[in-house]
Amino acid sequence: MVYTTNESGNMVPSYHSKYLGYSLMSNNLKGVLWALLATALFTLTSALAKIATTEYHVLQILFFRQCFVFASALPMLIKTFPHGFKTRHPLPHALRLTGAFIALSTGIWAVALLPLTTATTLAFAKVFFVAILASLFLGETTTRTRITGIILGFVGVLIVIRPGFDGFASLYTLIPLAGALGAAVAVVCVRKLSQTESTATLLGYQAVFVGLMAGVPMFWLWKTPDLFGLLLLTAMALIATLGQWVGIKALRLGEASVVGSVEYISLIYAALLGLVLFSELPDTFTLIGAAVIIFSALYMMQKEHRRKAALKPT
Questions:
Q1: What is the CA radius of gyration of the chain?
Q2: Residues above pLDDT 70, as percent of the chain
Q3: 73: which residues sit within 8 A by CB, 6+ positions away?
Q4: How far is CA 298 from CA 17, 27, 206, 261, 303, in A?
Q5: Which among 160, 44, 118 has a CA at the least distance from the CA of 281?
Q6: Which pick of 65, 146, 240, 311 has the fewest CB atoms within 10 Å?
Q7: Closest by alpha carbon to 170, among 113, 231, 233?
């Protein structure tokens, strides 16, 4: 039992002792804990999507998810309307929305066709695509560390997809790579737009227009879900939306480089869910490639963190 002092100076039991440990944690540690939760929620969303794709089209699943994302963002959109949609940079917004749509739709498509662990591993290629695109279009410095990390990451991807004289281990492995490239385009555009656009504008455009991109094909692809399907789609959308907001909280508490490194824990979550739900066992090439990809990304982040720390005035 933990005791505290009341207004009279007497020692009394603290009924908030279970929160005391959390309050004493550093912001980085709090951010890591929230990021662990966010990563678990996103991986669970992917597992539920893998189940849902046996009955429903990828775009219907994405549309259902975006409806909930839009609902969660609606109070902010109403508060900032119409100023939240005013922009002087329509082209970067269009590129960002296209990249986000490709990333989200191929992410669902990939888990439908590939083992959950393999799809999760190849999605990590986003880190290296971001480094390349940021160097080309944002003028970020191409250091020896970044070049080494990109090369190592590419080697890891090659180990997973195993190209050779007989072709790829599976052409389906190109789907999560396309999604990783789309996600990288979206990230680089957000970095550029965040210098001039508000959070409400960035959130509003994605909530509305990605939903429309997935929604228009519903005139031809919609399949009315039964009770189980409705519960499944609703649970997936709610978990994904919750994961998004938990992820934002993690980034607000901890440093981006620290919080970002937690993303690789999703490989463990994916392996466990793949085994329990789908009886999937990752093959040796996937495990080796995942280890190389994770090492290269963590190597890049650690070196960049040290470089930035050295540049700070003492």
A1: 21
A2: 83
A3: 203, 204, 207
A4: 36, 20, 29, 7, 8
A5: 118
A6: 311
A7: 113
